[in-house]
Write a structure and sequence with these properties.
This protein is α+β, with helices and mostly antiparallel strands and about 475 residues long. Helices cover about 50% and strands about 15% of the residues. Strand 6 (about 170-175) and strand 7 form a beta hairpin. Helix 1 packs across helix 2 (about 35-50) and helix 7 packs antiparallel against helix 13 (about 415-430).
């Protein structure tokens, strides 16, 4: 069945027994663990969207591969219009739910890379990926994309590290498959997915061919260990405080592969180091288009919160406030516009999937992510110091002192103190909490750092053409 309900998803997790550690203990059942409440709530929401009549058009698609509808998370984007619809869905839903859903494009990237390898080497990686893809679609399985390696000493390539396992690698090959050692970082929600799906994190050289590796295995495969930190919200949901992080967030994992066996049918790259350049060239625009859209949508949230806070405080007409909110609007539109332009300038790959423009996608994300960090401070400035000094929810609910809070935390006379406090708690969650640190870290590092954006723009921008244009304008012939 190509689309499952959240109940069926939870039932499917009962069949898996991943090795998970969090909060100083080993977790035998993620479904019953308090550490996974927020992440499971998030994942269930995503499952239900595909069968929600109001959201189905954005989260359910017909798949010719299995001749039935499949979910947003297992749909292959085969045209620029498909990718445009993808980022429009991200923009609309991230502006209310925060989740970036960026890594869903991993299958598109491997679709192209496996095709390249097969065409050059006569391998059958692409057919293996197709079969895996059909399995994901048929069962509505979720996967976690494991990309980033621990890396150790960043000045050294994988094979020259003091510990060779600091990048995921092949340690044994036999007739049945391969054995791998190493780890992947930042594997969001991995213990509550069905598969861990890996690929190299950078361009490799021939000496590091054992690190040119892509595969997919069930999350409870022997030897896989998830060393996990909870989502950044409270363990128990609250009524007023932490309104976002009580219900939205991912568990994050260091995923260890300790002599993990992978059958050949689930191996999609093994030693083809020269194709890692293609992988990064395809991966970069996809993840930056999605992340740029995500940051634009999150900036929209900040703009909305800033405007509402100014209204509640009676400062909405102040020139400097309007100017700061306009800056948010402009940054959001630039990020969103670059995402759309990158998709519009996509080039079709021979495998049948579009590759967005790499330079525009990176330029857009670079600009919008840095402004987003700035705007977290701007939102605090507009709200005021009360964001970090206001009484907690338990004090507000204390009948002995509530009247004082109602009296002294009043804003505009026609706005209830309770509504103003709800908004202030919301802003506190976004700018002065563990969740805000997660948002900031996500904006800076998720999908590659700002410096990677600069490198990609510098590498792909046709500067020589511009130099020659200026020579022509100046009538310089040499």
């Amino acid at each position: 069945m190509g689309i499952k309900t959240s109940r069926e998803y939870l039932e499917s997790l009962k069949q898996l027994k991943p090795e998970v550690y969090v909060g100083g203990e080993k977790i035998d059942d993620v479904l019953e663990s308090k550490y996974f409440r927020i992440s499971l709530e998030e994942m269930c929401k995503f499952y239900d969207w595909a069968s929600d009549p109001q959201k189905e058009k954005d989260f359910a698609f017909w798949s010719p591969a299995i001749n039935e509808k499949v979910s947003f998370w297992t749909h292959l984007r085969e045209t620029p219009d498909d990718v445009r619809k993808l980022i429009e869905t991200l923009k609309t839903n991230n502006a209310r739910h925060f989740c970036s859903m960026c890594m869903i494009t991993g299958l598109n990237v491997l679709w192209a890379v496996t095709y390249d390898i097969d065409q050059a080497r006569g391998t059958d990686y692409h057919q293996r990926l197709k079969k895996f893809f059909q399995e994901l679609q048929t069962n509505d399985f979720r996967y976690c994309m494991g990309v980033m390696d621990p890396k150790g000493d960043r000045s050294l390539p994988p094979g020259r590290q003091a510990d060779p396992d600091l990048y995921l690698r092949v340690v044994e090959r036999n007739s049945r498959g391969i054995v791998v050692n190493g780890a992947k970082m930042h594997t969001s929600d991995a213990p509550i997915t069905h598969f861990i799906f890996t690929c190299p994190s950078g361009v490799l050289q021939e000496a590091d061919r054992d690190y040119a590796l892509s595969f997919a295995v069930p999350v409870d495969t022997k030897g896989i260990k998830f060393i996990t930190r909870p989502a950044p919200g409270p363990m128990e949901p609250r009524e007023m405080e932490s309104p976002v992080s009580s219900h939205i967030g991912f568990v994050e994992c260091l995923t260890v592969f300790d002599h993990v066996f992978v059958p050949w049918e689930r191996v999609f790259m093994c030693g083809e180091w020269e194709f890692t350049e293609n992988l990064i060239r395809y991966f970069s625009p996809y993840v930056r288009v999605c992340k740029g859209t995500c940051i634009s949508a999150r900036t929209d949230i900040l703009a909305g919160a800033a405007a509402l806070m100014a209204d509640y405080n009676g400062t909405a007409k102040a020139g400097h406030i309007k100017s700061k909110i306009t800056d948010m609007m402009i940054a959001s539109e630039i990020g969103w516009g670059c995402a759309l332009a990158s998709v519009a300038k996509s080039v079709m790959h021979p495998s049948g999937i579009p590759i967005p423009d790499i330079s525009i996608s990176n330029a857009g994300l670079y600009h919008s992510r840095l402004r987003f960090i700035e705007f977290l401070g701007t939102l605090q400035e507009i709200a005021g110091g009360i964001v970090t000094t206001m009484p907690g929810e338990s004090e507000y609910n204390n009948e002995k002192i509530r009247s004082y809070i109602e009296k002294y935390l009043k804003g505009r006379n026609d706005i209830s103190t309770e509504d103003r406090m709800k908004l202030l708690y919301f802003i506190q969650d976004l700018t002065a909490s563990r969740f805000s640190g997660y948002l900031m870290g996500s904006a800076i590092c998720a999908g590659g750092t700002p410096e990677t954006n600069r490198i990609e723009v510098s590498r792909n921008y046709n500067l020589l053409e511009k130099v020659n244009n200026v020579k022509a304008l100046c009538s310089i012939t040499r």
